[in-house]
Write a structure and sequence with these properties.
By secondary structure, the chain is an all-alpha fold. 76% of the residues lie in helices and 0% in strands.
């Protein structure tokens, strides 16, 4: 089922005509270097926001506060695995002209697709719950207004962002990329203020260590929660019609350019996650505040330790993360619905539907940190579906044509996915009260 060339231009994610012309020049070898790469930069930056969402803040802060620099290697390993799976997602869209959910609709019976759609709708709501809560926490910390009002502000902000999609997809890519840059800039400032030990950062980034049973559990949480189900679907949608190849050779070149997009964007996300952890390690772990375990306590502790500027920067990064990742979640939910069951609703209506659970949770007074944990458990249940189907399809020559995975790539993807899925099951087991063997 590989795409026939050329295809129509009815895909959603087509950029501005000038971007397409620049991409065409790069594909045909008429431009080189950075000028050739820029037209393909964007889809992975939208996807990478999911890897620096508020859930990552909580996990990385806890990891650094409790274990110092020791778990940096876990973040690096997790990020490398995420790069591989996001690259496969992007390639699927380029090879087939369809997103992952649409390929499922073509290959599976109708009842299976409806079942898969329902599970992924639950995923979309759980994802948005975590992201709206994260942004609301940031706004409340910054302004002092109640959480419910902060969540409403978050929802309205995303409504404004939705309007940008009608003005061209490139503007949205630039906005989401700018949010990623803001988050990265905030953590660069935090790093300068905290002045962590560079030698220890480099050492623990490549030398594995697990100092105790609790470190094992936290490492399981970091890796198990790495790959976000909704952005696997979304990434394939962002590349499926963005730059349309006219031959297999052009498709191969587009795949190579998209790999650069993934490496740069996911590399940025990985560095931000590592910065969250080593900043937390320097500020909390080595100053006798290893008990810092959530976003609120981290913010409150930063002010006396590093000053008001550090706390301000932290809150800004959290708001940028929550707002941008919430919008990405809304986009992914639309992709899932249209892909699995070919049903369309306005984006503003979907935004409203996924916002309501977060508002209800806040109104009822649910503990934000506990709610974030519950949302992550839901994601762990639904993650196997996109991961397994992605590998199934990208290794199938009938679907991928000349872009089918090399056997070594498939083997590596299976290995990475097995690790991620097993750790998700361990995370679920531990969350529901199971006890792991003593690693001491």
């Amino acid at each position: 089922m590989p795409r026939s060339y050329p295809t129509t231009d009815e895909q959603q994610a087509q950029p501005h005509p000038k971007v397409q012309l620049a991409a065409r020049a790069a594909i045909e070898g008429r431009s080189r270097g950075l000028k050739a790469i820029l037209p393909f930069i964007g889809p992975a930056f939208i996807a990478c926001i999911a890897y620096i969402d508020p859930g990552n803040f909580a996990t990385n802060i806890q990891g650094g506060a409790q274990f110092g620099y020791a778990l940096l290697w876990v973040i690096l390993l997790a990020n490398l695995m995420a790069m591989l799976l996001q690259s496969l997602s992007a390639k699927l869209g380029i090879a087939t002209g369809m997103n992952l959910a649409e390929v499922c609709r073509r290959r599976f019976p109708k009842w299976v697709n409806y079942a898969l759609w329902i599970t992924q709708e639950v995923t979309a709501m759980a994802t948005d719950l975590a992201e709206v809560l994260g942004a609301a926490i940031g706004i409340t910390l910054l302004t002092g207004i109640p959480m419910l009002a902060s969540a409403a502000v978050t929802g309205m902000t995303v409504f404004v962002i939705l309007a940008m999609q009608g003005k061209g997809f490139r503007q949205l890519e630039i906005f989401i990329g700018a949010c990623a840059a803001v988050i990265a800039g905030c953590y660069l400032i935090e790093t300068i203020l905290a002045r962590p030990d560079l030698g220890q950062i480099l050492y623990h980034s490549v030398v594995p260590s697990l100092p105790g049973d609790d470190a094992v559990l936290l490492a399981v949480g970091i890796i198990g929660a790495t790959v976000m189900p909704h952005v696997i679907y979304l990434h394939s949608d962002l590349t499926r019609g963005r730059i349309v190849p006219t031959s297999d050779e052009e498709a191969r070149r587009i795949v190579r350019f998209n790999k650069i997009d993934v490496i740069v964007a996911m590399g940025l996300a990985g560095l931000v996650n590592m910065a969250m952890l080593f900043m937390s390690a320097k500020v909390f772990h080595f100053t006798g505040h290893a008990d810092v375990a959530d976003i609120n306590s981290a913010y409150q502790t930063l002010t006396p330790l590093l000053g008001g500027a550090a706390a301000l920067v932290f809150a800004i990064s959290l708001i940028a993360s929550g707002v941008s990742s919430s919008h990405v979640g809304t986009m992914a939910g639309q992709v899932v619905m249209q892909g699995f069951v070919d049903f369309h609703i306005p984006l503003w209506l979907r935004r409203l539907a996924t916002l309501v659970p977060a508002l209800v949770a806040i109104y009822l007074g649910f503990d934000p940190t506990r709610t974030l944990v519950i949302s992550q458990v839901i994601l762990s249940f639904t993650l196997p579906i996109p991961v397994i189907t992605l590998i199934m399809f990208t290794r199938n020559r009938d679907i991928m044509g000349k872009l089918v995975n090399h056997p070594a790539v498939t083997a590596l993807a299976i290995l990475c996915s097995t690790v991620i899925l097993l750790l998700n099951f361990v995370l679920l087991y531990q969350t529901f009260g199971g006890r792991l063997p003593d690693f001491g």
